[in-house]
Each structure stands twice: as C-alpha cells, then as structure tokens.
Write a structure and sequence with these properties.
345 residues; 2 domains; four-stranded parallel β-sheet; 10 strands; alpha/beta
C-alpha cells in the first residue's frame, strides 16, 4: 500500500545548502509523489544563532545554517511525517562531494536528536544509477519502480525548465516561488544607492560572483551581496548564467592534479570560461568562501593565481556567523571603485 492510500505525507525541506541548487528538483519530485512539501522560511539571525548552538564548532557556516533550518522546520511544523535530508556522494564517477554532504543525515540526526524521522535520497552514481536511487527512495514510501522512474524524469524536466528560467531571470525570486507559504514572503531591503542618480548607468562594472549556490544566494549570510553590487552600478553574473555546454568539458589542473571535489568543479569550470572565452565580458571577480571549507581553500588559490595572470581584478570574501555588514560593504565598495577608475580613466 503506498502513501496515497493512507494520507498525504507532510515532508519538510530545510531552505539551506543544496536547496539553493536542487530545491526545484526536490520539490517537483516529492510533489509528483503527492507529498505535502513544507519549506523552512528565509534565513534569519535567529536561525543562524540556533544552528550555531547545536552544530560542532568545526563545521562550516552553511552546515550550521542547515541545523538552524531543521530546528525552524520542527518548530513551525511539529506534525511533519519526515524531514527530507538528501545524501550527495557523487553525481560524477570520478568525483566526490564534500565529506560533510556525505554524512549530513547522520550529522543532523545525532547532532539535534529529534523524534521526527529523516527520509534520505542518496545520490551516488559510483554505486547506483539515478533511477536506482529513486527506486530505493520509493521503497520507503511504498511506491513501485515504474512510479519512481516517472517521478524522477518529471523532476528532471522541471529542474531543466527552472534552469532555463534562471538563465535569464532572478534566481532568488524563482527559488522563493517554490514556497507558497505567505508567512515566508521575503521582504526586500531598501539598499543605499552608492552612485548618484545623474550618472547611474554611465559607468557600469561587470562582476562575476563565484561560489557555491548556498553562499551566493543565501542573502542573509552574504548581506545581500548581489543586491548591493547592483546598487553600486554593477552588472552581476553567476555560475547559473553560464551556458550549460561549458560544464561538459573536464577540468584538469595539471598532469598530477585532477579536480577531485564535485562541489568545486562548477566553480573551476566557470573560472576557466571567464579566463578564456568570456575574459572581455567581466571586469572583476568576487569569490565567496565559507570559513573552514577545506575544498574551497584549495581552489581559491588556483582561481586567484589564474585571475592575477590574466590581470582580472579579484577579491575573496570569507563568510561565517560573525561576518559584519559594514566590513563587507566597505570591501566591495572599494573593490568596485578601483575597477571603475581603472576601466574609465
């Protein structure tokens, strides 16, 4: 007997980590299975504080935020049947995701100790095909193979449609549309306009913001970086604005070192594109890095050196729970001013 013959399962998804990348896929997948999907609200200072209390101090800030979102879900929806916490091991046979993604379900379960069961979708193409992952997930809910394959293919289609929209549209707004809860409607900040109205649009600067989706689009922890750059008369581009074809070519650092971390693969491929074909379309690069992220600390040095060789202005911003707004604004204002003077003088 599948769950549709019993009752509509209520499943919670934390709005953190790879929700900012795979959220459209997850929601479509679960909704195809007739689940009532509940998403936690946008990140707040309370969510960060609550997550930091229970997460191990050695964990990076995105994981701490994730803990806070799980607690927020349990508080707002105490009648959840499951918390959905996927395990991403690998979606490419030659690479792995960060170890913290591999143990995420257990880290949350034993770190927070709550009664609501966790339901896990494991993505590991080194062991199973994606359809097999879907079938294994369906066994928990009582669905047959045919239904799960249809659910996976439907979610893939919706995910591709989302990516096509994101290529032209506002990525954060499109993600927000996945959550229909009116209580979670994001309030837009009124940001200071740094450029006088009389000259707005006349001295534009093109900035590439590099980083994982959970750093680039997590507006609370990065202090609404994209919005602030736009207020400084910058055209902002991100990984999601890059043609899909650019992600098919393998990254090789050198003869000895091949890219091992899948989470960093997209960042390096994006950097490669703008070092090569897209060099003349950007004026500077801002790389958002999570404090205590081992893989990021490795590729940051590679990206920085490559940008320096091509004489592309570069800035890295390290994010943690103590990141101050005024310090971040000062740095990006100085960075964009430097580029603007260089470009237009």
């Amino acid at each position: 007997m599948n769950q549709t013959e019993k009752h509509r399962l209520k499943i919670g998804i934390p709005r953190a980590l790879y929700f900012y990348k795979y959220g459209p896929f997850w929601t479509a997948f679960l909704e195809f299975l007739n689940c009532d999907v509940k998403i936690s609200g946008p990140t707040t200072s309370v969510i960060v504080e609550e997550g930091t209390k229970d997460a191990n101090s050695e964990l990076c800030i995105p994981i701490k935020i994730y803990f806070g979102h799980v607690k927020n879900l349990l508080s707002e929806f105490p009648d959840l049947d499951y918390i959905f916490i996927p395990r991403y091991v690998s979606s490419h046979k030659e690479q792995f995701f960060c170890p913290k993604f591999l143990i995420l379900p257990e880290a949350v379960k034993y770190g927070l100790k709550f009664d609501t069961p966790i339901i896990t979708l494991e993505i590991n193409v080194k062991k199973n095909s994606e359809h097999e992952s879907a079938i294994n997930f369906g066994k928990i809910l009582g669905y047959n193979q045919e239904t799960m394959i249809k659910a996976w293919d439907y979610a893939n289609q919706k995910f591709e449609e989302f990516q096509d929209k994101a290529y032209e549209g506002d990525y954060i707004e499109l993600l927000d549309e996945l959550d229909t809860n009116p209580k979670h409607k994001r309030k837009k900040k009124k940001l200071k306009q740094f450029i006088p109205e009389a000259i707005r649009g006349k001295f534009m600067v093109n900035i590439l913001v590099l980083g994982h989706s959970y750093n680039v689009y997590e507006t609370h922890i990065n202090r609404d970086l994209i919005g602030r750059l736009e207020a400084m008369d910058c055209n902002v581009t991100t990984i999601e604005k890059l043609p899909k074809s650019e992600f098919s070519e393998k990254i090789t650092i050198n003869e000895q070192y091949h890219q091992y971390w899948q989470s960093e693969d997209e960042i390096l491929k994006t950097a490669r594109y703008y070092l090569r074909d897209g060099k003349n379309t950007i004026d500077g690069v801002i790389f958002l890095i999570s404090f205590a992220c081992g893989p990021d600390s490795l590729i940051q040095e590679i990206v920085m050196r490559d940008m320096k060789k091509r004489k592309i202005s570069y800035l890295d911003l390290v994010l943690d729970e103590h990141s101050g707004e005024s310090g971040l604004i000062t740095r990006i204002e100085s960075f964009t001013d430097m580029i603007r003077r260089k470009k237009y003088n």
